[in-house]
């Protein structure tokens, strides 16, 4: 890797100019052994709370290094207040959903247990690592929150009434996505995508009873859950979010 392309890492510690930050073991390995950076080389660091900085390697040992924070290059900014509710699927597909949702700018990710969700696949720590890696890669400054898994029933029972919930309805009963998003545009929104086996009839009935929930169609072809997530999020960002 050329040294003039500065690698970008997340620091869980709040940063300020002249402070020192010690990357954790995996990050240190990446900087020193993979990228082969040396003393005085510069990187970009963001902390998810105050913005992004240039840091310089000011000391190093075999398995550790310290970064001195030199200057601020970006002020903090947040993605729109959009949540993703998804039913976990197989490991690599869930990784794709989490990384894509992060790049597409969701503020919160809620693993949602539906009747047909296979629950043993849920690994919150893995999701958190995916989110950080995706933020580092896509230049995002804020880190989306990963919630504990919850049943759809419980989520609906405690839903904040000022947040609109768009559920992706593959039965053909949902409204045209652009029209629904345009006509109901709300700063607080959430997108719900069902599991590989789809929502049960009982779940669809429950969703249809809620005044805050709107059924949305993604066209006449049935998409895989991971494709449906990307399609719905992209459409929302283009219609109501920060792509405008
Ligand atoms: N098992 C279902 C079937 O064969 O009818 C398909 C489920 S689909 C793989 C997974 C989820 O993606 C659905 O529950 C829905 O939320 C979303 N989805 C897929 N295609 C869709 C479409 N054309 N319109 C709306 N939602 C869709």
Summarize this structure as a short list of keywords or feature phrases:
binds S-adenosylmethionine, 2 domains, eight-stranded parallel beta sheet, alpha/beta, five-stranded mixed beta sheet
Estimate the global geometry from the Cα principal axes.
Answer: elongated
Task: Determine the strand fraction and express it as a percent band.
Answer: 25-35%
SSE run: EEHEEEEHEHEEHEEHEHEH
Number of structural units classed as domains: 2
Task: Please summarize the sheet with the most strands.
Answer: 8 strands, parallel
Structure, described:
With 244 residues, the protein is α/β, with parallel strands linked by helices. It folds into two domains: 8-75, Beta Barrel (Ribosomal Protein L25, Chain P); 82-239, Alpha/beta knot, CATH 3.40.1280. Helix content is 31%, strand content 26%. The protein contains seven helices and 13 strands. The chain has helices spanning 25-34, 91-103, 124-138, 152-157, 177-183, 201-209, 225-239, and strands at residues 8-10, 20-21, 42-46, 51-60, 65-75, 82-86, 108-113, 145-146, 150-151, 164-168, 175-176, 189-193, 213-217. Strands 6, 7, 8, 9, 10, 11, 12 and 13 form an eight-stranded parallel beta sheet that branches. A five-stranded mixed beta sheet has the order 1-3-4-5-2. Strand 7 (108-113), helix 3 (124-138) and strand 8 form a beta-alpha-beta unit. The longest helix is centred in the middle third of the chain and has 15 residues, at 124-138. Bound molecules: S-adenosylmethionine (SAM).
